[in-house]
Amino acid sequence: METEQSLRIGIQKSGRLTEKTIKLLEDIGLKFDNYKSSLMVKCLNMDIELLLIRDDDIPEYVQDGVCDLGFVGANVTQERRANVSVIRDLEYGMCRLSLAAPKNGSIKHAKDFDGKRIATSYPNLTKDFFDKLGLTVKIVEISGAVEIAPTLNVSDAICDLVSTGSTLRANGLVELDPIFYSQTQLIQTNKPISATKQDLINRILLRIQGRQLAEKSRYIMMNAPSSSVEEIKDILPSAKSPTILSLADPDMVAIHSVVPINQFWEIMERLKSVGACDMVILPIESMVQ
Ligand code: PRT
Ligand code: ZN
Fold first, then answer.
1. Closest by alpha carbon to 29, among 207, 175, 202, 206?
2. Low-confidence stretches of the chain (pLDDT beneath 70)
3. Helix or strand or coil: residue 109?
4. Which residue's CA is minimally distant from atom 42 of ligand 1?
5. Helix (H) or strand (E) holding 8
6. Model pTM score
7. Cα separation of 198 and 192, whole Å?
8. Boundaries of CATH 3.30.70.120 in the chain?
9. Which member of 46, 79, 102, 116 has the greatest number of CB atoms within 10 A?
10. Tell me: domain 218-283, CATH 3.30.70.120, correct?
11. Within 6 Å (CB) of ligand 1, which residues are found?
Protein backbone atom coordinates (compact mmCIF):
# COMPACT_ATOMS: atom_id res chain seq x y z
CA MET A 1 0.00 0.00 0.00
CA GLU A 2 1.28 3.45 -0.89
CA THR A 3 2.24 5.43 2.20
CA GLU A 4 0.59 8.80 2.40
CA GLN A 5 2.63 11.91 1.77
CA SER A 6 3.24 14.26 4.69
CA LEU A 7 1.10 17.38 5.11
CA ARG A 8 2.98 19.91 2.99
CA ILE A 9 3.05 23.58 3.96
CA GLY A 10 4.35 26.31 1.63
CA ILE A 11 6.10 29.24 3.29
CA GLN A 12 8.17 32.12 1.97
CA LYS A 13 11.81 31.10 1.66
CA SER A 14 13.39 34.43 2.31
CA GLY A 15 11.53 37.67 2.83
CA ARG A 16 9.37 39.72 5.13
CA LEU A 17 7.13 36.83 6.16
CA THR A 18 9.75 34.14 6.72
CA GLU A 19 10.88 34.86 10.26
CA LYS A 20 7.40 35.46 11.68
CA THR A 21 6.00 32.38 9.97
CA ILE A 22 8.78 30.16 11.29
CA LYS A 23 8.33 31.65 14.76
CA LEU A 24 4.59 30.98 14.66
CA LEU A 25 5.19 27.37 13.60
CA GLU A 26 7.73 26.92 16.39
CA ASP A 27 5.41 28.57 18.91
CA ILE A 28 2.69 26.04 18.09
CA GLY A 29 5.08 23.19 18.77
CA LEU A 30 6.54 22.23 15.39
CA LYS A 31 10.23 21.38 15.47
CA PHE A 32 12.62 21.46 12.53
CA ASP A 33 16.18 22.38 11.83
CA ASN A 34 18.08 23.77 8.89
CA TYR A 35 15.20 25.60 7.29
CA LYS A 36 17.62 28.20 5.96
CA SER A 37 19.70 25.86 3.85
CA SER A 38 17.07 23.65 2.29
CA LEU A 39 14.00 24.00 0.06
CA MET A 40 12.18 21.12 1.71
CA VAL A 41 12.34 20.66 5.48
CA LYS A 42 10.90 17.75 7.43
CA CYS A 43 9.22 18.52 10.70
CA LEU A 44 10.91 16.46 13.42
CA ASN A 45 7.90 15.80 15.64
CA MET A 46 4.86 15.79 13.29
CA ASP A 47 4.11 14.37 9.87
CA ILE A 48 4.62 17.71 8.16
CA GLU A 49 7.09 19.09 5.63
CA LEU A 50 7.78 22.71 4.78
CA LEU A 51 8.33 23.80 1.21
CA LEU A 52 10.33 27.03 1.15
CA ILE A 53 9.50 28.98 -1.98
CA ARG A 54 8.90 32.51 -3.31
CA ASP A 55 5.74 34.00 -1.89
CA ASP A 56 4.35 34.52 -5.42
CA ASP A 57 4.29 30.75 -5.99
CA ILE A 58 2.46 29.84 -2.78
CA PRO A 59 -1.18 30.48 -3.88
CA GLU A 60 -0.82 28.39 -7.07
CA TYR A 61 0.99 25.58 -5.26
CA VAL A 62 -1.85 25.44 -2.74
CA GLN A 63 -4.49 25.77 -5.47
CA ASP A 64 -2.95 22.86 -7.39
CA GLY A 65 -2.57 20.71 -4.28
CA VAL A 66 1.26 20.67 -4.47
CA CYS A 67 1.01 22.15 -0.97
CA ASP A 68 -1.90 21.43 1.37
CA LEU A 69 -1.46 24.69 3.27
CA GLY A 70 0.31 27.98 2.66
CA PHE A 71 1.28 31.04 4.67
CA VAL A 72 1.04 34.03 2.36
CA GLY A 73 -0.12 37.63 2.11
CA ALA A 74 -3.74 38.18 1.07
CA ASN A 75 -2.35 40.61 -1.54
CA VAL A 76 -0.63 37.73 -3.37
CA THR A 77 -3.54 35.29 -3.13
CA GLN A 78 -6.04 37.89 -4.35
CA GLU A 79 -3.82 39.19 -7.14
CA ARG A 80 -3.28 35.63 -8.39
CA ARG A 81 -7.03 34.98 -8.12
CA ALA A 82 -6.14 31.63 -6.59
CA ASN A 83 -8.87 29.10 -5.92
CA VAL A 84 -8.02 28.29 -2.28
CA SER A 85 -9.74 28.58 1.10
CA VAL A 86 -8.56 31.17 3.60
CA ILE A 87 -8.73 29.35 6.92
CA ARG A 88 -7.15 31.93 9.23
CA ASP A 89 -6.12 35.58 9.23
CA LEU A 90 -2.75 35.67 10.95
CA GLU A 91 -2.43 39.35 11.90
CA TYR A 92 1.16 39.91 10.75
CA GLY A 93 2.64 41.21 7.50
CA MET A 94 0.02 43.95 7.65
CA CYS A 95 0.15 46.37 4.72
CA ARG A 96 -2.12 48.11 2.24
CA LEU A 97 -2.08 48.36 -1.52
CA SER A 98 -2.36 52.08 -2.17
CA LEU A 99 -2.49 54.53 -5.02
CA ALA A 100 0.27 57.13 -4.87
CA ALA A 101 1.21 60.04 -7.09
CA PRO A 102 3.95 62.68 -7.32
CA LYS A 103 3.66 65.14 -4.45
CA ASN A 104 3.14 68.32 -6.44
CA GLY A 105 1.36 66.79 -9.43
CA SER A 106 -2.24 67.05 -10.61
CA ILE A 107 -3.37 63.62 -9.39
CA LYS A 108 -5.00 64.04 -5.98
CA HIS A 109 -7.90 61.58 -5.95
CA ALA A 110 -8.83 58.29 -7.58
CA LYS A 111 -11.04 60.12 -10.11
CA ASP A 112 -7.98 62.04 -11.38
CA PHE A 113 -6.52 58.73 -12.62
CA ASP A 114 -8.82 58.54 -15.68
CA GLY A 115 -6.65 57.93 -18.75
CA LYS A 116 -3.42 57.96 -16.70
CA ARG A 117 -0.56 55.45 -16.63
CA ILE A 118 -0.18 53.50 -13.37
CA ALA A 119 2.86 51.37 -12.58
CA THR A 120 2.16 48.37 -10.37
CA SER A 121 3.05 44.77 -9.57
CA TYR A 122 -0.67 44.23 -8.86
CA PRO A 123 -2.37 44.65 -12.25
CA ASN A 124 -5.46 42.61 -11.37
CA LEU A 125 -6.26 44.32 -8.06
CA THR A 126 -5.57 47.73 -9.61
CA LYS A 127 -7.77 47.06 -12.62
CA ASP A 128 -10.60 45.71 -10.43
CA PHE A 129 -10.52 48.93 -8.41
CA PHE A 130 -10.75 51.25 -11.42
CA ASP A 131 -13.28 49.04 -13.21
CA LYS A 132 -15.57 49.44 -10.21
CA LEU A 133 -15.18 53.20 -10.44
CA GLY A 134 -15.86 53.07 -14.19
CA LEU A 135 -12.49 54.68 -14.97
CA THR A 136 -10.02 53.61 -17.67
CA VAL A 137 -6.35 53.54 -16.75
CA LYS A 138 -3.27 52.26 -18.53
CA ILE A 139 -1.58 49.70 -16.32
CA VAL A 140 2.19 49.43 -16.63
CA GLU A 141 3.18 46.13 -15.00
CA ILE A 142 6.51 46.29 -13.16
CA SER A 143 7.91 43.57 -10.93
CA GLY A 144 9.93 45.70 -8.48
CA ALA A 145 11.03 49.23 -7.52
CA VAL A 146 7.64 50.52 -8.58
CA GLU A 147 8.17 53.80 -6.67
CA ILE A 148 10.74 55.03 -9.15
CA ALA A 149 8.43 54.71 -12.20
CA PRO A 150 6.98 58.29 -12.15
CA THR A 151 10.48 59.80 -11.86
CA LEU A 152 11.54 57.79 -14.93
CA ASN A 153 8.35 58.92 -16.72
CA VAL A 154 7.36 55.29 -17.10
CA SER A 155 4.06 56.15 -15.42
CA ASP A 156 2.06 59.07 -13.99
CA ALA A 157 1.34 57.34 -10.68
CA ILE A 158 1.73 54.00 -8.93
CA CYS A 159 -0.21 51.39 -7.00
CA ASP A 160 2.03 49.60 -4.52
CA LEU A 161 2.23 48.05 -1.08
CA VAL A 162 2.73 50.47 1.78
CA SER A 163 3.38 49.84 5.44
CA THR A 164 5.06 52.85 7.04
CA GLY A 165 4.88 55.07 3.95
CA SER A 166 8.56 56.05 4.19
CA THR A 167 9.47 54.56 0.79
CA LEU A 168 6.77 56.67 -0.89
CA ARG A 169 7.96 59.83 0.86
CA ALA A 170 11.60 59.12 -0.03
CA ASN A 171 10.54 59.00 -3.69
CA GLY A 172 8.53 62.23 -3.63
CA LEU A 173 5.16 60.44 -3.74
CA VAL A 174 2.03 60.93 -1.63
CA GLU A 175 -0.28 58.12 -0.67
CA LEU A 176 -3.84 58.57 -1.97
CA ASP A 177 -6.57 55.93 -1.64
CA PRO A 178 -5.77 52.50 -0.19
CA ILE A 179 -7.42 49.96 -2.51
CA PHE A 180 -6.77 46.74 -0.56
CA TYR A 181 -5.83 45.92 3.05
CA SER A 182 -3.64 42.87 3.46
CA GLN A 183 -2.25 40.57 6.12
CA THR A 184 -0.68 37.14 6.15
CA GLN A 185 -3.21 34.34 5.90
CA LEU A 186 -3.24 30.59 6.28
CA ILE A 187 -4.69 29.14 3.09
CA GLN A 188 -5.78 25.57 2.41
CA THR A 189 -6.09 23.71 -0.85
CA ASN A 190 -9.58 23.02 -2.20
CA LYS A 191 -8.32 19.74 -3.66
CA PRO A 192 -9.54 16.68 -1.75
CA ILE A 193 -7.27 15.65 1.11
CA SER A 194 -7.26 12.62 3.41
CA ALA A 195 -8.99 12.59 6.79
CA THR A 196 -5.57 12.18 8.43
CA LYS A 197 -4.31 15.38 6.84
CA GLN A 198 -7.51 17.24 7.68
CA ASP A 199 -7.16 16.16 11.32
CA LEU A 200 -3.62 17.51 11.35
CA ILE A 201 -4.82 20.80 9.81
CA ASN A 202 -7.50 21.07 12.48
CA ARG A 203 -4.87 20.57 15.19
CA ILE A 204 -2.63 23.24 13.64
CA LEU A 205 -5.57 25.63 13.40
CA LEU A 206 -6.55 25.08 17.03
CA ARG A 207 -2.99 25.74 18.15
CA ILE A 208 -2.78 28.91 16.07
CA GLN A 209 -6.05 30.14 17.54
CA GLY A 210 -4.68 29.45 21.03
CA ARG A 211 -1.48 31.31 20.23
CA GLN A 212 -3.35 34.31 18.82
CA LEU A 213 -5.69 34.44 21.81
CA ALA A 214 -2.74 34.21 24.22
CA GLU A 215 -0.97 37.08 22.46
CA LYS A 216 -4.02 39.24 23.00
CA SER A 217 -4.38 38.32 26.67
CA ARG A 218 -2.52 38.71 29.96
CA TYR A 219 -2.69 36.61 33.10
CA ILE A 220 -3.30 38.82 36.09
CA MET A 221 -2.82 38.00 39.76
CA MET A 222 -3.73 40.33 42.62
CA ASN A 223 -4.54 40.46 46.29
CA ALA A 224 -7.74 42.15 47.41
CA PRO A 225 -9.93 42.63 50.47
CA SER A 226 -12.53 39.83 50.70
CA SER A 227 -15.18 42.55 50.85
CA SER A 228 -14.24 43.68 47.29
CA VAL A 229 -14.61 40.29 45.61
CA GLU A 230 -18.05 40.95 44.11
CA GLU A 231 -16.98 44.33 42.69
CA ILE A 232 -13.80 42.77 41.29
CA LYS A 233 -15.80 39.98 39.65
CA ASP A 234 -17.93 42.62 37.92
CA ILE A 235 -14.85 44.42 36.60
CA LEU A 236 -13.08 41.31 35.27
CA PRO A 237 -14.37 40.61 31.75
CA SER A 238 -13.49 36.92 31.75
CA ALA A 239 -16.39 34.75 30.59
CA LYS A 240 -15.48 32.22 33.26
CA SER A 241 -15.34 33.16 36.91
CA PRO A 242 -11.90 34.12 38.24
CA THR A 243 -9.89 31.87 40.55
CA ILE A 244 -10.20 33.07 44.16
CA LEU A 245 -7.76 31.76 46.76
CA SER A 246 -7.78 32.36 50.50
CA LEU A 247 -4.74 33.90 52.17
CA ALA A 248 -3.26 33.71 55.68
CA ASP A 249 -4.97 37.03 56.41
CA PRO A 250 -8.70 36.09 56.55
CA ASP A 251 -9.73 39.56 55.33
CA MET A 252 -7.75 39.19 52.10
CA VAL A 253 -7.95 36.90 49.05
CA ALA A 254 -5.76 36.30 45.98
CA ILE A 255 -7.53 36.55 42.63
CA HIS A 256 -6.25 35.18 39.30
CA SER A 257 -7.81 35.92 35.93
CA VAL A 258 -7.16 36.49 32.24
CA VAL A 259 -7.81 39.90 30.70
CA PRO A 260 -7.76 41.05 27.09
CA ILE A 261 -4.82 43.29 26.33
CA ASN A 262 -6.91 46.00 24.67
CA GLN A 263 -8.82 46.70 27.92
CA PHE A 264 -5.88 46.00 30.14
CA TRP A 265 -5.02 49.42 31.62
CA GLU A 266 -8.60 50.44 32.14
CA ILE A 267 -9.28 47.19 34.02
CA MET A 268 -6.15 47.59 36.16
CA GLU A 269 -7.17 51.11 37.18
CA ARG A 270 -10.67 50.04 38.07
CA LEU A 271 -9.38 47.06 40.10
CA LYS A 272 -7.04 49.34 42.01
CA SER A 273 -9.85 51.75 42.76
CA VAL A 274 -11.85 49.00 44.52
CA GLY A 275 -8.91 47.90 46.67
CA ALA A 276 -6.92 45.39 44.59
CA CYS A 277 -3.19 45.53 45.33
CA ASP A 278 0.08 43.67 44.62
CA MET A 279 -1.00 43.13 41.02
CA VAL A 280 1.25 40.90 38.90
CA ILE A 281 0.77 40.64 35.15
CA LEU A 282 2.18 37.78 33.10
CA PRO A 283 2.28 36.99 29.38
CA ILE A 284 0.54 33.76 28.31
CA GLU A 285 2.19 31.16 26.09
CA SER A 286 -1.00 29.66 24.67
CA MET A 287 -4.66 29.16 25.52
CA VAL A 288 -7.02 26.30 24.78
CA GLN A 289 -10.68 26.97 25.46
O1 PRT B 1 11.29 36.78 -2.92
P2 PRT B 1 9.82 36.78 -2.71
O3 PRT B 1 9.03 36.87 -4.00
O4 PRT B 1 9.38 35.64 -1.84
O5 PRT B 1 9.50 38.08 -1.84
P6 PRT B 1 8.96 39.51 -2.25
O7 PRT B 1 10.14 40.41 -2.43
O8 PRT B 1 7.95 39.43 -3.35
O9 PRT B 1 8.12 39.89 -0.97
P10 PRT B 1 8.53 40.60 0.41
O11 PRT B 1 9.36 39.67 1.24
O12 PRT B 1 9.04 41.98 0.19
O13 PRT B 1 7.07 40.74 1.04
C14 PRT B 1 6.32 39.60 1.36
C15 PRT B 1 4.93 40.04 1.82
O16 PRT B 1 5.07 40.91 2.95
C17 PRT B 1 4.12 40.86 0.86
O18 PRT B 1 3.50 40.09 -0.15
C19 PRT B 1 3.09 41.49 1.79
O20 PRT B 1 2.05 40.58 2.05
C21 PRT B 1 3.90 41.71 3.07
N22 PRT B 1 4.32 43.11 3.29
C23 PRT B 1 4.04 43.82 4.42
C24 PRT B 1 5.02 43.89 2.48
C25 PRT B 1 5.16 45.13 3.12
N26 PRT B 1 4.55 45.05 4.34
C27 PRT B 1 5.92 46.18 2.48
N28 PRT B 1 6.03 47.27 3.05
N29 PRT B 1 5.57 43.68 1.26
C30 PRT B 1 6.29 44.65 0.69
N31 PRT B 1 6.47 45.89 1.23
C32 PRT B 1 7.35 46.84 0.46
C33 PRT B 1 6.57 47.69 -0.54
O34 PRT B 1 6.43 47.00 -1.76
C35 PRT B 1 7.47 48.91 -0.70
O36 PRT B 1 8.52 48.67 -1.59
O37 PRT B 1 8.00 47.75 1.30
C38 PRT B 1 8.06 49.04 0.69
C39 PRT B 1 7.22 50.03 1.45
O40 PRT B 1 7.43 49.94 2.79
P41 PRT B 1 7.21 51.23 3.68
O42 PRT B 1 7.36 50.77 5.09
O43 PRT B 1 8.29 52.21 3.29
O44 PRT B 1 5.84 51.77 3.40
ZN1 ZN C 1 7.26 37.86 -4.22
1. 207
2. 1-3, 238-240
3. coil
4. 164
5. strand 7-12
6. 0.93
7. 10
8. 218-283
9. 79
10. yes
11. 12, 15-17, 54-56, 73, 75-76, 93, 95, 160-167, 182
